[in-house]
Amino acid sequence: xxxxxxxxxxxxxxxxxxxxxxxxxxxxxxxxxxxxxxxxxxxxxxxxxxxxxxxxxxxxxxxxxxxxxxxxxxxxxxxxxxxxxxxxxxxxxxxxxxxxxxxxxxxxxxxxxxxxxxxxxxxxxxxxxxxxxxxxxxxxxxxx
Length: 144
Hints:
Layout (H helix, E strand, L loop, with lengths): L1 H24 L1 E6 L6 E10 L2 E9 L28 E9 L2 E9 L4 E10 L2 E8 L2 E9 L2
């Protein structure tokens, strides 16, 4: 019985730690073009049901050549042809130590899904997308 109580207490502490970790990642982050340093978009990270999600809330260039809102024309399923602003691109990431992983990130440019992992490093957010054994890591900056 004593071991059961200790196990339950440890699980509760791990859960609190996960919520605190999500708290540090939640909020609005700027995505930056790695070559030019220009801000491309803002993504709001939020916790829902113990998992981490991210939604595009702003694009630097939100409209296409015809002046209409940019759509995710290459997306699949329910995201097909929806406005990019408002798309949930980061889904279902679970706490794993000091990182969140196990979910997906969607690239609205090509509509492809990648396995995702995010963590905080030096006050910045690292977002990594995996395709098989290959990956690419982006650095996102906290919005004020």
